[in-house]
Design goal:
Shape of chain B: globular
Radius of gyration of chain B: 20 Å
Largest sheet of chain B: 8 strands, antiparallel
Order of helices and strands of chain A: EEEEE
Oligomer: heterodimer
Mean pLDDT of chain B: 89
Structural class of chain B: alpha+beta
Low-confidence stretches of chain A: 1-60
Distance between the termini of chain B: 29 Å
Largest interface: A-B, 56 and 97 residues
Radius of gyration of chain A: 18 Å
Number of strands of chain A: 5
Number of helices of chain A: 0
Mean pLDDT of chain A: 49
Strand order of the largest sheet of chain A: 2-3
Helix content of chain B: 25-40%
Distance between the termini of chain A: 39 Å
Largest sheet of chain A: 2 strands, antiparallel
Order of helices and strands of chain B: EEHHEHHHEEHEEEEEEEEEEHEEH
Strand order of the largest sheet of chain B: 1-2-6-7-10-15-16-17
Strand content of chain B: 25-35%
Structural class of chain A: mainly beta
Helix content of chain A: under 10%
Number of strands of chain B: 17
């Protein structure tokens, strides 16, 4: 097991994943990559087959380009607000 | 349930209360499946939302999150859902440089928000709050073991799934609906929304954001093909304490409700959990921080009524 020391608010420290990727200390970041489980966010999140032993997959840290949005005057299908 | 015709497609929708919020689920189906197709998918969606709420609510003593918060440094075996929740919460902390922090559980509970919100205002006003802020320890000491599917929280660390739980739930439920045969789905859980698959029309899903300073007015309206929208506001979930007014958005740096000029933030990103995390990062910053997150679009509202928007959303402001 690896450890990453104490919490550092606003300045998360670099990641350390144990050899083999079986044990992960959360709070750890690995640059652009984070190690997570496969089931977390649907099929879009799954890594390419064979990239990492199951059930661990690699998820990109940021989403790259933002979703396409456009101005519309169409009647809204849903209204969303903080609750 | 309403049905809208567009070629060979139909849209089913239903609103309910879920996760302590107003929720709205829409599914796009093949019209040949008939009404039963949408009805079955909606039932599946609500069942999944209920399952996630049962696992993640910090107000249910039998939830997995409550078990984690009581674990005091021992490893707890959890479901894949809860393992994913903690993993994503830590990823969000990393993504936001610590501005989103899932370990605000003790801090927000110390202010009286230790039960379903409906009961908070009734009780918190008469319960003393600590003179000193409860520190937010940060998630660096959390241990995730995917091989054993266990999570270990260090002693003194408790997590508040809060908004990221709703954002991730919207992601998971939308994905489950597509897996179950929906052509498209939109899952809106109290301000955390995920759209996946085919929208109901060629223009995409039309999304409306109310003005947080005047709920009777519309702040913005835009169309979204696929992606997520999250909104956080410190004008919601407010209550009185013996030390004054409080709200649920804790600044990890102080352990107190966030102050500052920004009162509400809406973010459009690829995933619900990510959009939710970025709302917190921007809410604790300055309007100019919008430029720090090129992977998302955002709209910011300040206490004085100022409105700031990423270029892609500027035209959506009403």
């Amino acid at each position: 097991m690896t450890t990453d020391g104490q919490a550092h608010r606003r300045r998360p420290r670099r990641a350390h994943a144990a050899a083999g990727g079986r044990m992960v200390v959360a709070g750890a970041s690995a640059g652009a990559l984070l190690v997570m489980v496969a089931a977390m966010a649907g099929p879009q999140e799954a890594a390419p087959s064979g990239a990492v032993a199951q059930p661990v997959v690699v998820v990109r840290r940021s989403g790259g380009s933002p979703p396409a949005v456009a101005r519309t005057d169409a009647a809204p299908v849903t209204t969303t607000a903080a609750s | 349930m309403a049905a809208t015709a567009r070629r060979a497609r139909a849209v089913g929708e239903e609103r309910r209360r879920a996760m302590g919020s107003d929720a709205h689920v829409l599914v796009v189906t093949d019209r040949a499946a008939g009404p039963a197709g949408a009805t079955g998918l909606l039932a599946r969606a609500w069942a999944r939302v209920g399952q996630l709420e049962a696992r993640w609510s910090r107000f249910r003593p039998d939830s997995e999150v409550s078990a984690l918060n009581r674990s005091c440094g021992t490893a707890v075996a959890v479901s894949d859902d809860t393992f994913a929740l903690v993993s994503h919460a830590v990823a969000a902390w990393d993504l936001t440089g610590g501005r989103f922090d899932p370990t605000v559980g003790a801090a927000v509970a110390s202010l009286g928000y230790d039960r379903d919100f409906a009961g908070v205002s009734r009780v918190a006003a008469s319960c003393p709050v600590p003179g000193e802020a409860v520190p937010v320890p940060g998630p660096a000491g959390i241990v995730l073991d995917p091989g054993r599917s266990t999570v270990t929280l260090p002693p003194g660390v408790s997590i508040d799934p809060g908004g990221i739980g709703k954002g991730l739930a919207a992601d998971l439920v939308a994905g489950a609906l597509l897996d179950a045969g929906a052509l498209g789905a939109l899952v809106n859980l109290g301000g955390d929304l995920r759209a996946a698959g085919d929208p109901p029309g060629v223009g995409g899903w039309a999304i409306s954001l109310p003005d947080p300073l005047d709920g009777g007015r519309e702040l913005a309206r835009f169309s979204l093909g696929q992606g997520a929208v999250a909104t956080s506001s410190r004008l919601r979930r407010q209550w009185r304490t013996t030390a004054g007014a409080a709200h649920h958005l804790i600044d990890p740096a102080t352990g107190r409700p966030a102050a500052g000029d920004i009162v509400a933030v809406s973010v459009v990103a690829d995933r619900g959990w990510r959009a939710e995390a970025l709302t917190k990062a921007i809410l604790l910053g300055e309007p100019g921080d919008l430029d720090r997150h090129p992977e998302a679009h955002a709209i910011v509202v300040t206490a004085g009524g100022g409105r700031y928007a990423s270029p892609a959303l500027a035209g959506a402001l009403r």
